[in-house]
Amino acid sequence: MRTFSFEFFPPRDEIAAVDFGINIGRLLRLSPSFVTVTFGAGGSSRERTFALVDYLQNKVGLNTVAHYTCVDASRKKIEEDLAALHEMGITRLMLLRGDPPKGSDCFQTPTDGFANASELIAFTRSLYGNHFSIGGGAYPERHPEASSAEEDLLNLKRKVDAGCDFLITQFFFDNSRYYNFVAQARAAGITCPIIPGILPLTHFNQLERFVRISGAHIPDSFLQDLETHKGSPEKIAQIGRAYATAQCRDLLLSDAPGLHFFTLNKSRATVEIFESLMGTV
User: Fold this and answer.
1) Bridge partner list, 197
2) Alpha helices of the chain — where are they, by DSSP H?
3) What is the DSSP letter of 254?
4) Is the pLDDT at 41 greater than 60, yes or no?
């Protein structure tokens, strides 16, 4: 069965929380298969993440997937956090290594912690067996720290073998990159669902940052269209929504197992795209 899901992050302040409430109300109308909440490592951000997971799961009634990372976490802390999520009634996790903390150029393995998502996944399975459905991240255009696509695929296979039930990809803008990646993953023996991640580009100033984060290829025609109209925010938003809609329709017609939207805690683009796909889904 196809899944349609949305990713959120914890609001950073009271005003953002109000906006978040408005936007999630709009997205609720779409009856998502599940929503995911990104994980903030350390201190109050970790508390906000868990509070939002609890709220969405137990107050709003959404099937909520909690992200969890290795960053700044010992095995004891991981055990405590997993127990807290279990107590909340969470049954799905996205287990990730996580990005290096701010101010650090590379990931440092925490004392008595884990170096990568594969170790975190295996540890979680050792504690909870099959209680949790576990998701992992995948990179159609190679993880930025991998030396080659071949190395990245081997790392992904280790992650799946450690206990992943499904994968959600980093966002991409060229569907052929996703299709090639899926074919290579299947040839490597990876059989779990690989859900494509979709990020509607709605502001021109997002372009450089998102390409830097993901290494995603921007097709020439799309890039030219964005650059031609970069002085018109409304036109850029229209172009971004139209492109993402066409991208999603092609993925669905090509039997993708679902769509995962990186909402950036906004609703307009995702709602419009999703509604325009109703005849396809």
Assistant:
1) 171, 260
2) 14-28, 43-54, 75-88, 117-128, 149-163, 175-187, 206-214, 220-228, 233-253, 268-276
3) T
4) no
**How far apart are alpha carbons 87 and 176 in whole angstroms?**
41
Q: Is the pLDDT of residue 43 over 80?
A: no
Specify the CATH class of 3-276 in words. Answer: alpha beta
The rounded Cα 248 to chain-centroid distance in angstroms is 16
**Choice among 7, 47, 150, 208 that is catalytic:** 7
Burial 138-153 (b: 16+ CB within 10 A, else e): bbbbbbeeeeebeebb
137 token code pair: 């991240």
- The two tokens of residue 250 are 């092609």
Per-residue model confidence (pLDDT) at position 42: 46
Active site residue 208: no
pTM: 0.93
- Measured CA to CA, the distance from residue 2 to residue 203 in angstroms comes to 29
